[in-house]
Design a protein that fits this description.
By secondary structure, the chain is α/β, with parallel strands linked by helices. The chain has helices at residues 20-28, 47-53, 61-67, 101-110, 131-148, 178-189, 201-210, 222-230, 252-257, 306-327, 329-335, 337-342, 353-359; strands spanning 2-5, 32-36, 56-58, 70-72, 90-93, 113-116, 170-174, 193-198, 215-219, 234-237, 263-266, 287-290, 293-296, 343-346, 349-350. The protein has two domains: 2-111 and 306-359, 3-Layer(aba) Sandwich (Rossmann fold), CATH 3.40.50.720; 131-304, 3-Layer(aba) Sandwich (Rossmann fold), CATH 3.40.50.720. The longest helix is centred in the C-terminal third of the chain and has 22 residues, at 306-327.
């Protein structure tokens, strides 16, 4: 198979979808790998390293897309890349299509096959390709929140851990999954007072055990969220409905009741965000205010730490990439149930229910 690795073009996106030792493994199995020049530079990989691993270094993105049968990326294609779509091409990347109807339509019109990292799901309901970036984003969310709570950055001027004689910051985490758990680890480590909100009582019991009573756990409902956020200095949105739009759990009236200069970090922004007032931002322009509350809604947070993120991501994605390359796309889709669940667009149809429902499109099973 001919595998292409284009350079990411989303704002400040410095991750890369394949590392040099992955190129070596694919080449040894008889596949061809085309890497766009400087694709790995942001993650500390040189063109020389890729060439030594057996990749063909290609000067432009257009040539990579044209040469490949399978494109492997990190983030969803940007509008400038839509022109490269074609019916005999497969795209393997984070797609997050639910809030992106224009990208969905471009993929449908072209006939490209889209396999999304975030909806590959194993038999135990785990999301193995979403987990590593959720771990990174959850840990980053607290670091970022602590930074923006500082007065020069527009926040309330609160030190997350406080000091003797001064109370620590109140951190509210909505969602007790991978993002929320990793956020709690960092927030507790920094000395904050942490409250976790989730709709699953069983998950709240697990979190109470995991953190040995160091967090307050609350059942999710509008009253609980409103009352908790009134006291919060930092709010982490960590809600996930796999493949579908995130529910808007924090509404504008709650913002009005919050402290001025509080900070909200919406990690669910890839799926549309879980705050009513969320809108996607970039690393170049990451924050804005609504009702006096500072919002951070960068949709590719892990790109800020590309060296760590690239290794964490490719550790997880490479076994699936190998299987798709070795088996061929059609056999991999039909022979591996996890990969089959990753297929969001196939033969001009939406084949993932969450995307279809989020956009009001017909859903089609793969036959």
């Amino acid at each position: 198979m001919r595998i292409g690795v284009p350079k990411e073009i989303k704002d400040h996106e410095s991750r890369v979808a394949l590392v040099p030792h992955g190129v070596t493994a694919l080449r040894e199995a008889g596949h061809e790998v085309f890497v766009e020049a400087l694709a790995g530079a942001g993650s500390s990989f040189t063109d020389e390293e890729y060439a030594a691993a057996g990749a063909v270094i290609v000067p432009t993105a257009a040539e990579v897309w044209k040469a490949a049968d399978l494109i492997v990326k990190v983030k969803e294609p940007q509008p400038a890349e839509y022109r490269y779509f074609r019916s005999d091409l497969t795209l393997f990347t984070y797609l997050h299509l639910a809030p992106l109807p224009e990208l969905t339509q471009a993929m449908l019109d072209s006939g490209i096959t889209g396999i999304a990292y975030e909806t590959i799901e194993e038999a135990d309901r785990s999301l193995p390709l979403l987990t590593p970036m959720s771990e990174v984003a959850g840990r980053m969310a607290v670091q970022i929140g602590a930074q923006y709570l500082e007065a020069p950055n527009g926040g309330r001027g609160v030190l997350l851990g406080g000091v003797p004689g001064v109370a620590p910051a109140n951190v509210a985490i909505i969602g007790g999954g991978v993002v929320g758990t990793n956020a709690a680890k960092v927030a507790i480590g920094m000395g904050a007072h942490v409250t976790m909100i989730d709709r699953s009582l069983n998950r709240l019991r697990q979190l109470d055990d995991i953190f040995n009573g160091q967090v307050v756990t609350l059942a999710s409902n509008q009253w609980t969220i409103h009352e908790t956020l009134k006291l919060a200095d930092l709010v982490i949105g960590a809600v996930l409905v796999p493949g579908a739009s995130a529910p808007r759990l924090v509404r504008r009236p709650t913002l009005v009741a919050m402290k001025q200069g509080a900070v909200m970090v919406d990690v669910a922004i890839d799926q549309g965000g879980c705050f009513e007032t969320s809108r996607p931002t970039t690393h170049s322009n990451p924050v804005y205010y609504e009702e006096g509350v500072l919002h951070y809604c960068v949709s590719n947070m892990p790109a800020a730490v590309p060296h760590t993120s690239t290794f964490a991501l490719t550790n997880a994605t490479f076994p699936y990439l190998q299987e798709i390359a070795h088996q061929g796309v059609e056999r991999a889709i039909r022979g591996n149930a996890a990969i089959r669940l990753g297929v969001n667009i196939y033969q001009g149809k939406v084949t993932y229910r969450g995307v279809a429902e989020s956009q009001g499109r017909p859903y089609h099973e793969i036959v």
